[in-house]
Design a protein that fits this description.
The structure holds 2 protein chains of 2 kinds. The longest helix of chain A is centred in the C-terminal third of the chain and has 18 residues, at about 390-410. Helix content of chain A is about 35%, strand content about 25%. The model of chain A is unreliable at about 1-20 (pLDDT under 50). Chain A contains 16 helices and 23 strands. The termini of chain B are far apart. Mean pLDDT of chain B is about 85; it is low at about 1-15. Helices cover about 40% and strands about 20% of the residues of chain B. Chain B is of the alpha+beta class. Chain B has a 4-stranded mixed beta sheet with strand order 2-1-3-4. In chain B, a hairpin with a 4-residue loop joins strand 3 (about 75-80) and strand 4. Chain B has helices at about 1-10, 30-45, 65-70, 95-100, and strands at about 20-25, 50-60, 75-80, 85-90. The chains are: A alpha/beta, B alpha+beta.
């Protein structure tokens, strides 16, 4: 009885036809395209709102640069900045706007009103539009960025005029089938109401960017508020602005898609391989924990060097010393790293943990995971990650980094400094011990007035190992394990 | 130096013979542009009759001229002569303000 009714109902509810997909234009920012399901709506207006310094103009420029690369000419209408300033700022990122202007792929329209001009009665921006029309025809422009629309609206003296002029501009843009970004300054940190709320209603796609400070560390985030006729990622996405422009964090999958561990690979030392019953497992996570001066970095570098010499790529994230210091320090145990860097198999990145927030650190790491494509990474030391803000910050960073590595089948070597009082407590202190497959513990023990180094393998998941403590020395050619 | 020369010129030439040159940028027959045309013509006739010249530029016909003169809004009135140059935006509805801005002191 219920079944035919049900059938009818589902048909009524009818899913929208998937046949006509909304055409989109890439933003020039890969991560943002992912969030937007491909890019901005072609021939329509996108509103990009954010506080000062939140990256709106850079985002607009990246959009135009990408267009220029695929022969879609674009125009930047500047109501605030001078063309020379924009060109200079772009140049510092390696973007040669002047060349694109010469090639007729980009046009910078200085639209700042003469501050000396006297206002007397109503006016419209018809002259600007007439000039733009001429340029659009000459260049066959497809893209336009209006930076910033609030400055334009500010010229009008009544809310009614503001709205009328905006609608007129909107019509004008639609008639010319321009894919448009309008930037809009909003003051509040939280994405509070804009000065011109009707902007949000008019635009087909609305993106908010902001910059927030927590624990004295600033993080940039963006969120898509609406997107007519298209699905989009609804979360807040952290992003960074670096030399190359904007990087949006790829969407972190909420499903665990970890790859199974691979074959065993050498730890870099034959005797340690014996203890580990063949070495580390490829694609797993290894924690090298120990007190200060117990040889943790050396142990990590023994593995790094061996892997690099096999032709595998290793990304070494150092939170404690500069690449130069590390390279020079490792010469003492005979581990030459510079040749590996020259060969392109080793990439050392040094970061000050407190310099950035978790998201920014993650973005830098993810960029290298996808750019450099390492088979293994080393993090030295995870104990320093607490300085990214808090224990929670360190946990989030390591957890997400580990996840990203496991999805890519990358081996993780985590170096951690323990205080030496309660090693088991220290190791689980950051809360990731359950994610660690192998724990190698290093200790420095004074025995009869001599410092003796000891290594104990505390756990290896899915593998046999020796549980004995093993004495070892740091020689001028790596480490030397003595069987006890 | 410029100033000195100008002052000299001012002294030698009779102020009466000095003409006002205006350039008025309009956008076709949009209401604000028509109003500005009317307002400017009326003010000139009242105040500087016979001493002025108005060049009207339709930005819809000649966007290049608008661009060269950095004109973004219509109507825009530029007082070209006498120096210094003055730019007034809008339909020129505020008569007092326009008179002051353009230095249209009555010739009597």
């Amino acid at each position: 009885m219920a079944s035919p009714k049900r059938g009818a109902k589902t048909r009524d509810a009818g899913r929208p036809h998937k046949s006509k997909k909304l055409p989109k234009v890439s933003t020039g920012i890969a991560g943002l395209d992912l969030v937007l399901g491909g890019g901005l709506p072609t021939g329509r207006v996108t509103l990009l709102s954010g506080g000062p310094g939140s990256g709106k103009t850079i985002m607009g420029l990246q959009f135009l640069l990408r267009g220029a690369r695929v022969d879609q000419a674009g125009i930047l209408v500047m109501f605030e900045e001078r063309g020379t300033a924009v060109r200079q700022n772009a140049w510092s990122r390696g973007w040669n706007l002047a060349r694109l202007e010469e090639e007729n792929k980009l046009y910078l329209m200085d639209a700042r009103l003469d501050p000396q001009a006297i206002l007397s009665g109503e006016f419209s921006i018809n002259a600007l539009l007439a000039i733009l029309d001429q340029r659009i025809k000459a260049m066959r422009a497809k893209l336009i960025v209006i930076d910033a629309v609030d400055t334009l609206l500010n010229l009008y003296d009544s809310p009614k005029r503001e709205r009328l002029e905006l609608y007129a501009l909107h019509e004008w843009l639609l008639n010319r089938k321009l894919t448009t970004i309008m930037t809009n300054k909003i003051v509040s940190q939280e994405e509070g109401p804009s000065r011109y709320p009707f902007l949000d209603f008019m635009a087909d796609c609305v993106i908010h960017v902001d910059q927030r400070v927590t624990n004295q560390i600033a993080t940039r985030r963006l969120r898509v508020i609406k997107y007519r006729g298209s699905g989009y990622g609804r979360n807040e996405y952290p992003f960074i602005i670096d030399k190359n422009g904007i990087n949006v964090a790829p969407i972190t999958s909420n499903v665990l898609e970890h790859r199974p561990p691979g074959p065993k690979i050498s730890s870099g030392d034959a005797k340690l391989d014996e203890i580990l019953a063949g070495g580390y497992k490829c694609g797993t996570s290894i924690l090298i924990a120990g007190t200060a001066g117990s040889g943790k970095t050396t142990m990590a570098c023994v593995f790094t060097r061996a892997a690099c010499l096999r032709g595998e790529r290793v990304l070494y994230l150092n939170f404690e010393e500069s690449p130069q210091a590390m390279i020079s320090n490792m010469l003492s145990p005979g581990l030459a790293l510079q040749p590996l860097i020259n060969k392109g198999t080793l990439l050392i990145r040094s970061y000050l943990p407190e310099a950035m927030g978790v998201e920014e650190h993650l973005l830098h790491a993810l960029k290298d995971l996808d750019g450099f494509r390492p088979q293994h990474i080393a993090v030295d030391a995870i104990s320093a990650c607490k300085r990214m803000g808090s224990d929670q910050a360190a946990f989030e960073y390591l957890m997400r980094l580990l996840n990203a590595c496991k999805e890519r089948g990358i081996t993780c070597i985590f170096v951690s400094q323990t205080s030496g009082l309660d090693i088991a407590q220290d190791i689980s202190g950051i809360g990731i011990s359950s994610l660690i497959d192998t724990v190698v513990l290093l200790r420095r023990l004074p025995i009869d007035g001599v410092i003796v180094r000891e290594l104990i393998v505390m756990k290896t998941r899915g593998s046999k190992h020796s549980e004995q403590p093993h004495e070892f020395r740091i020689t001028d050619s790596g480490i030397d394990l003595v069987k006890t | 130096m410029m100033k000195a020369r100008k002052r000299g010129k001012h002294k030698s030439a009779k102020p009466k013979s000095e003409t006002y040159i205006f350039r008025l940028f309009v956008a076709g027959n949009e209401p604000n542009s028509s109003q500005a045309r009317g307002n400017l013509a009326r003010l000139c006739e009242e105040r500087i009759k016979g001493l002025y010249k108005i060049e009207t530029v339709d930005v819809l016909q000649d966007p290049t001229a608008a661009h060269e003169n950095k004109v973004l809004v219509t109507p825009t009135l530029i007082l070209i002569k006498p120096q210094p140059k003055v730019t007034v935006l809008g339909n020129l509805s505020d008569t007092k303000q326009v008179i002051a801005a353009l230095r249209l002191t009555s010739t009597r």
